[in-house]
Amino acid sequence: MRMTGLPYAATLATALGSGLVAGVFFAFSTFIMDALARLPAAEGIAAMQSINRAAITPLFMALLFGTAVAALGLVAWSLATWGERHSAWVLAGGALYVAGAILPTLARNVPLNDALATADPGGAEAARRWAAYVSDWTTWNHVRGVAALAAAALLTVALR
Questions:
Q1: How far apart are CA 83 and CA 80, in angstroms?
Q2: Nearest-angstrom CA–CA distance, 68 and 29
Q3: Number of domains composing the chain
Q4: Which structural domain range is residue 117 located in?
Q5: Residue 20 has pLDDT above 80, yes or no
Q6: Is-contact 64 105, C-beta < 8 A?
Q7: How many Cα neighbours within 13 Å face the side chain of 87?
Q8: Against a cut of 0.85, is the pTM above it?
Q9: Residue 13: predicted pLDDT
């Protein structure tokens, strides 16, 4: 049976949200973090502290976490309609977004950001701390980006 109505609209919106989030993560993974890492530690830390504060906007939080809420709803819906041709695709896409993009955000990237927020950009440990942060944060950002993009792809396939 072909997906229509609210399930179709929710799947499309979640696929688009996942794709937008993947784009943000992609930008950070491919050039923003590299540019920040090239700065002296004090400047890189100060810049990332500013970015982390600026990122907490209603629009970005609605995109990141609203997509997660929609993805969880789609997971539940896919289980309720299990056996229809789209169910496995929707389940995989929704679960992947939550497990691969949101959980690492909450468990890894946010704690790294919180620790960086307390760093003294001019402190004695700044260079070591900054190098470790860039490496760890970027690694987990790659995970988030790939997961969000794969979720968008799976949800898009579910629409066919």
A1: 9
A2: 21
A3: 1
A4: 5-158
A5: yes
A6: yes
A7: 11
A8: yes
A9: 97
Measured distance CA(155)–CA(160) in Å, rounded:
9
Mapped onto helix, strand or coil, the DSSP state of residue 84 is: strand
Give the number of C-alpha atoms closer than 13 A to the C-alpha of residue 100, restricted to the C-beta side. Answer: 21
Average pLDDT rounded to a whole number, residues 7-18: 96
Structure tokens at 11: 């799947």
Look-up: residue for tokens 């995989």?
A: 92
Q: pLDDT per residue over 116-145, tens digit each?
A: 999 999 998 999 999 999 999 999 999 999
Both structure tokens of 118? 């307390």
Give the other-Cβ count within 10 Å of 45's Cβ.
Answer: 25
**pLDDT digit string (tens) for 50-74?**
999 999 999 999 999 999 999 999 9
> Helices H, strands E: what count in the chain?
8, 0
Q: Which residues of 68-98 are buried (b: 16+ CB within 10 A; e: fewer)?
A: bebbbebbebbeebeeeebbebbbbbbbbbb
Would you say how long the chain is, in residues?
A: 160
